[in-house]
Amino acid sequence: MKGRIFEYLEKYSFRKVVLCHNADVGLKAVIAIHSTDLGPACGGLRMWTYETEEDAIMDALRLGRGMTYKYAAAGVNLGGGKAVIIGDPKTQKTEALIRAMGRFIQSLNGEYRTGEDVGTTLDDMEVLYQETEHVITLPEYCGGAGNIGPATALGVQQAMKACAQEVWGSDSLKGRTIALQGLGAVGWPALEGLVKEGARVTVADIDEAKVERARRELAVKEVPPAVIHAQPCDIYGPYALGAVINDSTISELRCRIVCGSANNQLAEERHGTILQERGVLYAPDYIANAGGTIFDTDRMQKGGFNRERAWRNVARIRDRMTELIAMSKREKVPTWLAADRLAEQRLQMARHLRMI
Ligand code: NAD
Fold this sequence. Notes:
The chain has 2 domains: 2-66 and 78-142, 3-Layer(aba) Sandwich (Rossmann fold); 149-291 and 318-344, Rossmann fold, CATH 3.40.50.720. The protein is α/β, with parallel strands linked by helices. Helices cover 43% and strands 15% of the residues. The chain is built from 13 helices and 12 strands. Strands 1, 2, 3, 4, 5 and 6 form a 6-stranded mixed beta sheet that branches. It has helices at 4-11, 53-74, 95-107, 122-128, 149-168, 187-196, 208-218, 269-277, 285-288, 291-296, 307-315, 317-330, 335-355, and strands at residues 16-22, 27-35, 41-42, 45-48, 79-86, 112-113, 177-181, 200-204, 221-222, 235-238, 257-258, 281-282. Bound molecules: nicotinamide-adenine-dinucleotide. Nicotinamide-adenine-dinucleotide (NAD) is lined by residues 148-149, 152, 181-187, 204-207, 210, 225, 239-242, 261-263, 289, 292.
């Protein structure tokens, strides 16, 4: 018998996968725990409709493994995991459903900790928190860090500066042309930060109200969403969707750097290699967009949440990006692979320490 799930678990050494089911509230969910080498597995709770149950499990597995690498490379002492509720967040999300999910998370006794993700909100986290203490993303009045979009935006801007230093010999973004895709929780503060630094930004969003606000308040130019990636510019910043670097977009790029907050920007890893071959410097998404995570998890460090330390650690993304560019050149590998190696080095270190 051949199936892709157990093959994937074995290939990437998963710790465990939990299937959650509660017929009374219509809950069907998956919790994937990839690694706890650096600390408890952590990753957001997604709610989404999937074609098949297998697709949902595979999504949780891929995302959970991605979290392990993200935390390891970002220097955060957490392992990787992810939870997925199968269903339409617009029509099927109820308090009972979220609470039931919270009970499953609680039953893992802290081996998995969660936060918001696609299809879930900070309000949902508050509901979840009624049933489990293992929620990281919470409003400030519940002891959390609140909105993490600005921290993510700042981290990306620092990664851009490291890339600019490499490409133009100066980290200043003043006068640089930037094509910014997506004006959401991260894209908007990113736009504000870049405009403040004197960059010349062109924006696109499918939400016309956000574009109108950007035009009105920050006097930036706009282009239709379908062509933002193809703008002649210094930096293309994906702040909306994943898989924006793919077979059809890659030959249309007119930039020297790709750096943004969107998760999984490369449709496939080979697209990161093609970028390098074309002389485009790619800031690996999980390095550039770790700011929110670093900020969010600061309260798990010694002494509890410290705003100053949290911002300082977010700004360190720049050093990490610089380190990664150096590694990529030294080892003659594309930046996406250098990022994976950086993460693997930290994981190896943690495993080694456990053995001695
Ligand atoms: P969001 O939902 O607040 O914003 C996304 C924005 O993109 C929206 O304004 C939406 O209208 C726009 N958009 C959607 N499709 C588009 C398209 N085809 N063209 C142009 N714009 C489009 O999400 P967010 O929290 O800002 O996150 C943005 C990206 O960054 C996501 O990929 C997310 O996974 C990633 N990310 C976010 C955080 C965080 O702190 N929120 C942290 C790490 C990574």
